[in-house]
Specification:
This protein has a single domain (3-166), classed as Immunoglobulin-like, CATH 2.60.40. The protein is built from three helices and 14 strands. The chain has helices at 7-17, 21-25, 28-31, and strands at 3-4, 32-36, 39-42, 47-56, 61-63, 80-82, 90-92, 101-105, 110-116, 118-127, 134-144, 146-147, 151-152, 156-166. Strands 2-4-10-7 form a four-stranded antiparallel beta sheet. Strands 3-14-11-6 form a four-stranded mixed beta sheet, with no helix packed on it. A four-stranded antiparallel beta sheet has the order 8-9-5-12, with no helix packed on it. Strand 8 (101-105) and strand 9 (110-116) form a beta hairpin. The longest helix is centred in the first third of the chain and has 11 residues, at 7-17. The protein starts with a strand and ends with a strand.
Length: 167
């Protein structure tokens, strides 16, 4: 049986047993690391594929990049890699991910996609044809939920510093 924990459940649990919330989250970052280049450079109109490397410790896994919903309208927390550039000079295309593992999940009553171990996906970064010379800085956001077969930790989003140098 899988136990899905959301932030409200964590707060209630911590309050009930007088446990500092930071203790509950303390192990999570070490179970999954995500790495991305800190910058890329290119000319207006270029599309640059940026590798994003995930490393998960055993027995942890994360769900796939595709939204999956069962007949009851629920599904696993999808993994996503994205950014928002407020200058309008850079955008991204959908993530290109390796083939996921597929397994029937009794909790969701459907096949779900997941990844474990080490793998990389690609985030295509598009420099708009109207972009001007200079550096555009923004974080790449990575959303995921760690599970170990018995429970899932609350979903989290991490921000990785990133810059696009327009030539």
């Amino acid at each position: 049986m899988r136990i899905l924990l959301n932030p409200l459940h964590i707060l209630l649990f911590c309050a009930l047993f007088n446990i500092p919330q930071s203790m509950v989250y303390s192990a999570e970052p070490s179970q999954c690391t995500v790495k991305v280049k800190s910058s890329i450079s290119g000319k207006p109109g270029d599309t640059i594929n940026v590798p994003v490397k995930f490393t998960l410790k055993k027995p942890w896994y994360i769900y796939g990049f595709t939204i999956m919903i069962n007949k009851e309208g629920i599904g696993p927390q999808q993994t996503d890699v994205f950014f928002t550039d407020t200058t309008g000079q850079v955008k991204h295309a959908p993530v290109i991910a390796p083939k996921p593992l597929t397994k029937y999940d009794e909790s969701f009553e459907m096949d779900v996609h997941s990844y474990k171990g080490s793998f990389s996906c690609t985030l295509p970064v598009i420099i708009e044809s109207t972009a001007t010379k200079g550096t555009v800085k923004f974080p790449i956001e990575v959303s995921y939920q760690l599970c170990d077969g018995n429970m899932c930790l609350p979903p989290r989003t991490i921000s990785l510093p990133f810059a696009v140098k327009v030539k």
